UniProtKB/TrEMBL annotation:
TM stretches of this protein: none
Pfam families noted in UniProt: DNA_pol_A_exo1
Name of the gene this protein is made from: 5576665
Compositionally biased spans, kind Basic residues: 227-238
GO MF annotation terms: 3'-5' exonuclease activity; nucleic acid binding
3'-5' exonuclease domain residues: 20-198
GO cellular component: cytoplasm; nucleus
InterPro entries: 3'-5'_exonuclease_dom, 3-5_Exonuclease_domain, RNaseH-like_sf, RNaseH_sf
GO biological process: nucleobase-containing compound metabolic process
Protein name: 3'-5' exonuclease domain-containing protein
Length: 257
């Protein structure tokens, strides 16, 4: 019986080997999508993530602004969805191709939002949280935690970047760094898992939403049995006299002596 627990030392990754491109027009998106598809012929897996601008407490009131895809061939594209006048068919086909896995944290939920916002059908998703649970990786299962425990890689997840305006025409360096690493590191975590479990064994986890395991409630222990109380001897009742009776008794005692 093989032990699938994730006890191997963290793997070193080279982020610098990835070429990151911000894509905001139709033709460029077409070209890079075809390159990603070509890379998938060697390794049919893409790191996947989405970003959108949260402007209210609801969290998802804006359309997906950025689509991140990274291939094992060293290409990462950040597609500015809100800047595209139309979605290239090549990109739609790539997302719909279930023979190419799209891996990340909660990719199925991102796919639902992509469909709601742009009518795109995402298939072939694989949630890293489900695989981490399958391989007995210690919790928690967020991207930052998995990057640390599986790859030994520190990720910077600052709120001011997460909640920033992803719809701006020119993304900041911090936004580009954050968005690209989400896709790249997600892919590298999957590749590390793939060394422990074969792709064919991952089929049951395809297009499955990660379920947080329920912690069973601890039953309260029964109260200890009550000890039988010892029967106490009755105390002699003290005679209580009112003032008048006390005076009469006192006078009676004086007359006797």
């Amino acid at each position: 019986m093989t032990d699938n627990s994730c006890q191997l030392p963290p793997l070193a990754i080279d982020i610098s080997r990835y070429k990151v491109h911000v894509v905001g027009d139709y033709a460029t998106c077409q070209d890079f999508t075809l390159q990603l598809k070509l890379h998938c012929e060697d390794y049919p897996v893409l790191g996947f993530d989405c970003e959108w601008w949260c402007t209210s407490s609801m969290g998802n009131n804006r359309k997906v602004a950025l689509l991140q895809l990274a291939s094992a061939g060293g290409l990462c594209i950040l597609v500015q969805m809100t800047r595209l006048h139309s979605i290239p068919q090549e990109l739609s086909d790539l997302l719909h191709n279930d023979r190419i896995l799209k891996v990340g944290i909660g990719p199925l939920a991102d796919g639902i939002k992509l469909h709601q916002d742009y009518g795109l059908a995402l298939r072939g998703t694989m949630d890293l949280q489900t695989l981490a649970q399958r391989l007995d990786v210690p919790v928690p299962y967020g991207m930052k935690a998995l990057a640390k425990s599986v790859l030994g890689f520190e990720m910077d997840k600052k709120k001011n970047v997460i909640l920033s305006n992803w719809e701006r025409p020119l993304l900041t360096k911090r936004q580009i760094d954050y968005a690209s690493k989400d896709a790249i590191v997600g892919l590298e975590i999957f590749r590390a898992f793939n060394q422990r479990i074969q792709l064919c064994e991952m089929e049951p986890f395809r297009d499955v939403r990660y379920q947080i395991p329920k912690v069973p409630k601890l039953k309260k222990p029964p109260p200890p049995p009550k000890r039988p109380q010892k029967r106490q001897k009755p105390h002699a009742k003290r005679m209580r006299l009112d003032v008048r009776q006390a005076q009469q008794l006192q006078g009676h005692l004086y007359t006797e002596f």
